[in-house]
Design brief:
Shape: globular
Distance between the termini: 87 Å
Number of helices: 9
Largest sheet: 9 strands, mixed
Number of strands: 53
Helix content: 10-25%
Length: 733
């Protein structure tokens, strides 16, 4: 019996071996039918060789040929009778395509479109092409002559009325129809208004402070900015102006800590009143800590009064540099002043000074070793030059190096020769995977770039191309104000000045300059009020501005009036729930910490007092100390461990949702949630946070980062936190 079984097994093995040695085509099935769709409008589809069938895995070639005056838009190969099942053909040139025959009948079809003429009615407009295929974009470029502004851009089909075009991101365009079309534009001559009558502005000084105005004369309706400074222990209680005989008195409101008023049609004198505020008697302490590689000290460090000057001294050891220095949680690395003379040979000493706030301050210095990673720069030296510099914390400047350590800031300067410009720049790690490295452009000049050194050697590739001499400057029309550039054309690197003039009762909220690629350029403020400037890139730009009502404007210059988070930021700012990171910056994209979130809730609750919570990493006198104690006692927050809270750790979206969920239940609201399984990343929500996340979605406190993504593990930005707190406030109202 065993012998018979062995013979059967041997025969089976021989059969498998013979099948494996057969050519692949022997096992293919077929033939299957090939149908060329037709008749088709404006073209034909034919199968090469006139074949109407083929076996599975055969290569089939077909030709999609448009009629005269027409063009090919698309081709499609699909299962006969089932258009949703398709085969992807590959182009081989001259309208020919190939595909591998599947194991079913197929139909081949194509879409063609006719070309039509585009005529410019006037010489001051141009188009991207005089002949355009149906369904393609026609781009109309108007060019106003000097002394004229653009009014309208239009197009008109044969036998139809004119249609007005609206610009999209500064570009006028429309989709070509089924007949010839004419395009044109209208312009209006710019008329300079007469110089308005100006009235004098004087200030009444006080022994408790000083008053200043940004102008000595102003026309009716012009905005006058007032600066008031106080002596020690005094604050401003009232600012007003009156006419010289004192019959008219008007108070000047403060918006975001700034005073301004609209000039009336008479001479004015500005006054201020001050209130005495006794100094705080409490003293505070500065604590210091550092990593291996250097030392950090504070002078003085104990018994400090509010407003007293503290000097921080950092000393990197040989072979190390200062990687970061934080004072009270704020990164001040770039503000350190170094002893240049002794720096290189005698132990590098740096200092930073600050005024003591009304709380204890923690100073942390982190040191790292000098350069160890190689940077290979690859480019064609016939068309330009590329140089590298690495930021030296010790020298407080960029120095020429072709190597750097992880985290170092590397500067790449691209210098195209005359007649050339940079075409592309790419940076990748020189490791097994070849990961790309993110970089960004200098605001000062388009040909200066930066990146942070990864933990590996890197390759840097630069490609040059022929340059274009000048590019157009588009200026969008703005509501509630006017916007004007000093030129309509500018060369790469040229300074372009922009004048923004708000209407009465409005202020400039934001000013944007975007390139043709959609990148946003940095805009600088000129010495003259209302005048700004930027450096022209090697492509056209679009200038746009937003003017907001003066009463509703925020003091932050990084929160645009049209940004999605403007209302949320204004809400938390007006409610005193959040402040800016400085007077003029809110930092909407910066991450928010656990300590910040708890403090926001505490402020919303009326700032109730509570003793220390007992966490070892929550020091006395910090801005969040009382807030953490209150939230922990009421079960609104939990520690990361039984003894630590991690107040300076960036908070995740699910952690923030959990804290708001507990706070809502503490207020007496229901914790009923909704099904979140429809989100693709619902499985990434931690078990402890699932009920909170489902409640936050149902209540409208949290929305996904997209229609199908919650991003529970992603860190929450300051803007996102502001939006969630506004949503939460609307929920509990």
């Amino acid at each position: 019996m065993k012998s018979k079984f062995k013979k059967l097994m041997a025969a089976a093995l021989v059969l498998c071996l013979m099948l494996a040695l057969l050519p692949a085509g022997v096992l293919a099935e077929g033939p299957y039918t090939i149908t060329a769709d037709g008749p088709l409008a404006n073209g034909t589809v034919t199968v090469d060789g006139g074949i109407d069938s083929a076996n599975e895995n055969d290569t089939v070639t077909f030709t999609a040929a448009p009629n005269e005056g027409c063009g090919l838009m698309s081709v499609k190969v699909y299962k006969t009778g089932e258009e949703s099942t398709t085969v992807s053909p590959s182009p081989v040139g001259d309208g020919k395509y190939t595909f591998t025959m599947p194991a079913y009948d197929v139909t081949i079809t194509a879409t063609f479109s006719a070309y039509h003429n585009v005529t410019c009615a006037t010489s001051d407009v141009t188009v991207n092409s005089p002949s355009v295929m149906e369904g393609d974009w026609v781009i109309v470029t108007p060019a106003a002559k000097e002394g004229y502004d653009l009014d309208d851009v239009w197009y008109q089909y044969e036998g139809s009325e004119q249609t007005k075009l609206e610009a999209t991101n500064g570009v006028y365009q429309f989709i070509m129809g089924t007949s010839n079309v004419t395009v044109g534009a209208t312009f209006t001559e710019i008329v300079t208004p007469p110089e308005p009558v100006k009235y004098s502005i004087t200030t009444a000084q006080s022994s408790y402070g000083t008053i200043g105005a940004d102008k000595q004369q102003a026309a009716k309706g012009e905005t006058v900015n007032v600066t008031v400074t106080t002596i020690t222990d005094y604050v401003v209680s009232k600012v007003y102006y009156k006419n010289y005989d004192g019959t008219v008195v008007e108070q000047i409101p403060a918006v975001g800590g700034k005073y301004s008023f609209t000039m009336p049609a008479y001479n004015v004198e500005i006054h201020a009143e001050f209130t005495y505020v006794p100094p705080m008697p409490t003293t505070y302490t500065v604590t210091t800590s550092s990593s291996v590689g250097g030392s950090v000290t504070a002078t003085p460090s104990t018994g400090l009064n509010y407003g007293e000057t503290v000097t921080i001294t950092v000393q990197p050891y040989d072979g190390y540099y200062l990687k970061s220095l934080t004072v009270g949680g704020e990164d001040v690395t770039n503000l350190v002043t170094w002893d240049w003379y002794w720096n290189w040979y005698y132990g590098r000493t740096g200092t930073y000074s600050f005024l003591m706030p009304s709380n204890d301050v923690n100073v942390v210095a982190e040191f790292d070793t000098w350069y160890d990673g190689d940077i290979a720069c690859i480019y064609d030296g016939r068309f330009g030059n590329v140089s590298l510099n690495v930021w030296s914390q010790a020298l407080d400047r960029f120095v020429p190096y072709t190597s750097a350590s992880k985290g170092d800031l590397v500067q790449v300067i691209v210098e195209p020769y005359n007649g050339y410009a940079m075409n592309s720049l790419s940076i990748s790690e020189r490791n097994y995977w070849g990961s790309s490295v993110d970089y960004w452009q200098s605001w000062k000049h388009d040909n200066v770039y930066y990146f942070y050194m990864p933990d590996s050697d890197v390759n840097l590739y630069v490609d040059f191309t022929e340059a274009v001499s000048e590019h157009i400057v588009y200026v969008d029309k703005a509501a509630n104000g006017s916007l004007k550039a000093d030129t309509t054309w500018a060369a790469d690197g040229q300074i372009v000045y922009v004048t923004a003039t708000p209407d009465t009762g409005y202020v400039l909220s934001s000013l944007f300059v975007k390139t043709a690629k959609g990148d946003q350029l940095k805009v600088y403020e000129a010495k003259k009020a209302g005048v700004y400037y930027f450096y022209m890139p090697d492509q056209y730009v679009t200038v746009s501005a937003y003017f907001a009502p003066a009463a509703s404007a925020l003091p932050f210059n990084d929160v645009a009036y049209t940004s999605w988070y403007y209302d949320a930021v204004k809400f938390v700012y007006d409610k005193s729930i959040m402040d800016g990171v400085s007077y003029y910056r809110f930092a909407p994209d910066a991450t928010i910490t656990r300590g910040m979130v708890v403090t926001m809730l505490w402020r919303m609750a009326g700032e109730p007092y509570e003793a220390a919570a007992g966490f070892t990493d929550v020091a006395a006198g910090r801005y969040y100390t009382t807030a953490v104690a209150w939230a922990a006692k009421n079960g609104i927050v939990e520690g990361m461990t039984s003894t630590t809270f991690a107040p300076d750790q960036a908070i995740t979206r699910e952690q923030l949702a959990s804290i708001l969920y507990r706070y809502a239940k503490w207020l007496g609201f229901s914790g009923y949630g909704s099904d979140i399984s429809g989100y693709t990343d619902a499985g990434k929500v931690s078990s402890y946070a699932y009920d909170a996340m489902s409640w936050a979605v149902r209540s409208g406190v949290v929305t996904g980062t997209s229609a199908k993504v919650l991003d529970p593990q992603g860190t929450a930005s300051r803007a996102a936190a502001a939006q969630m707190f506004m949503n939460f406030y609307n929920y509990i109202k």
